[in-house]
Design a protein that fits this description.
de novo design (two linked rop proteins), 60s Ribosomal Protein L30, Chain: A, 2 domains, seven-stranded mixed β-sheet, 6 helices, elongated
């Protein structure tokens, strides 16, 4: 794929923009213009498609771009449902519906193909230039320190490793609940604007702990070597009890020191993140 410097050069954005223009024309005329509730829903959903593509591109990072493309694709599905409702309410003729439906399908498929390309690509956005992604440990110039990156945990969102080994101590960066294979967050549902509709703290706890375990093992350590844990929750009141129970199942025999704090949000829409210190002996 050639280097693209502007989001307007993206074929997927051009398709989304064409769809938005065609639907806006229908919103401005005929009986749909007076079906205010449905009109407003379609207007927001169809606008969300090119806007999220543009914002994801502007974020400058491949993983963030994929996240916003996923939101755009979900918005395309919303639009498809809404134009079916327009047909059912006789706001659209069969010919107009088929034209719009074909364009929505084409747009959604194009977004899906672009997401697949980015997931499989080794290319990085400007925010992540120089990031290392490998199962093999990389040793820094200082032989007393070792920098660890692994494909067995979700990729970092910035210029930092999964872990840093100094002497016999291992310091993990914040590890959340994103899946290493597809960057998904288990149990998470987002609306067209990227806001959280539903999340599953239990599923996120298990995934988060699995990611920590993967980084530990990639670093030559293991679960029982954990000595200190800082846990970040986005909703202490709602999630603490269940998180605490699951934590007990995992850490009963470890007896690591622990601090749990509530934060307003985390860089991605995850509900839990762990900061861990372990030994390598």
């Amino acid at each position: 794929m050639a280097t693209v410097k502007k989001f307007t050069d993206l074929e997927v954005w051009q398709l989304a923009n064409e769809l938005e223009q065609k639907i806006y024309f229908q919103l401005s005329s005929g009986t749909l213009s007076k079906d205010y509730s449905l009109k407003d829903q379609i207007n927001r959903s169809v606008g969300s498609i090119p806007d999220n593509i543009a914002e994801g591109f502007g974020r400058g990072g491949r993983l963030e771009f994929i996240q916003f493309l996923s939101i755009a694709r979900a918005s395309a599905s919303e639009v498809q449902s809404q134009i079916i409702r327009c047909l059912n309410r006789n706001h659209f003729s069969k010919e107009i519906f088929e034209e719009l439906n074909e364009l929505v399908d084409k747009t959604g498929n194009k977004i899906g193909a672009f997401i697949k390309y980015l997931n499989e690509s080794e290319k990085t956005g400007p925010k992540f230039q120089g990031r290392v992604s490998t199962n093999v440990k990389r040793v820094t110039k200082n032989k007393k320190q070792e920098t660890i990156h692994t494909n067995e945990a979700a990729k970092p969102l910035g210029a930092y490793p999964h872990a840093k080994k100094v002497g016999n101590l291992l310091f993990l960066s914040g590890i959340g609940s994103r899946n290493a294979k597809d960057n998904s967050i288990p149990g998470l549902q987002l609306d067209a604007d990227g806001k959280i509709i539903k999340y599953d703290i239990e599923a996120e706890c298990h995934q988060c702990f699995a990611n920590v375990k993967a980084v530990l093992e990639a670093s030559g350590s293991h679960w029982n070597n954990i000595v200190d844990v800082t846990v970040f929750l986005t909703n202490m009141k709602k999630d603490f009890a269940l998180y605490n129970k699951i934590y007990g199942d995992y850490f009963k025999d470890v007896q690591a020191c622990r601090t749990t704090v509530e934060v307003k949000s985390l860089p991605t829409p995850i509900a839990i993140e762990l900061k861990v210190i372990a030994t390598t002996d």
